[in-house]
Amino acid sequence: MPCYIARVSNIKKILLILFIFGIIGCSSANIDMYRDESPSFNPFQYFKGNTKAWGIVQDRSGRVVRRFTVDIKGDSSEHKLTLDETFDYSDGTVDHRVWEIVKNPDGTIVGEADDILGLAHGSFLGNAMRWEYEMNLPVLGKVYKVKFDDWLWKLDHDSLINRSYIKKFGVTVAEVTLFFRKVPLEY
């Protein structure tokens, strides 16, 4: 009898694990689901000129662990976008990143920056953009290799929202939320 109970218990555990992975697999969003959404988002057009962003970083529990602003200067052609970003954190830290992003003939995009490992890969469609990349992320004196799953959605002509899911071993360990707004040239 105890052997039968152990088998049933193990089967229940296996079914629970399969169910959880099934839900996780089904929850993966795909850029195609935004094909008909508007307003249309093209990062090569939107980021041309000056953009300001305000953001937070949340840990796994949802607690805000960092606040920051970003000043972005974008230079763009039809197939190449350069983003010069200056991050100003509430603790006084300032970081700088320059993205070089290229649109491929098939419509996908690739990007690189000094602190990104390899290339970022993604696409944009409808009002959305998704791209993924890896980086070594410094946290409290340690450095962790993480993967960013980055989603952007255009809200109106001047506004954009960004959700980044920071993952380690496929598990989301932190999230970043940014709100972007186009700014006048005199800013």
Q: What does this protein look like?
A:
This protein is α+β, with helices and mostly antiparallel strands and 187 residues long. It has a single domain (31-182), classed as Calycin beta-barrel core domain (Lipocalin), CATH 2.40.128. It has 2 helices and 10 strands; from the N terminus they run ααββββββββββ. It has helices at 2-26, 43-46, and strands spanning 49-59, 64-76, 80-89, 94-103, 109-112, 116-125, 128-139, 142-154, 159-168, 171-182. The protein has a 10-stranded antiparallel barrel. A hairpin with a 4-residue loop joins strand 3 and strand 4 (94-103). It starts with a helix and ends in a 5-residue tail after the last strand.
Give me some keywords for this one:
10-stranded antiparallel barrel; Lipocalin; alpha+beta; single chain; 16% helix; 10 strands; globular; 187 residues; 2 helices
How does the SSE layout of this entry go?
Blueprint: H1 2-26, H2 43-46, E1 49-59, E2 64-76, E3 80-89, E4 94-103, E5 109-112, E6 116-125, E7 128-139, E8 142-154, E9 159-168, E10 171-182
Antiparallel strand pairs: 1-2, 1-10, 2-3, 3-4, 4-5, 5-6, 6-7, 7-8, 8-9, 9-10
- Count of strand segments: 10
Corresponding CATH superfamily: Calycin beta-barrel core domain
In spatial order, strands of the major sheet run: 1-2-3-4-5-6-7-8-9-10
Structural class: alpha+beta
Topology-level CATH name: Lipocalin
Q: Gap between N and C termini, in Å?
A: 76 Å
Name the average pLDDT: 88
* Coarse shape: globular
CATH architecture identity: Beta Barrel
Radius of gyration, in angstroms, nearest whole number: 20 Å
- Percent helix range: 10-25%
Provide the number of structural domains: 1
Multimerization state: single chain
Biggest sheet, in brief?
Answer: 10 strands, antiparallel, barrel
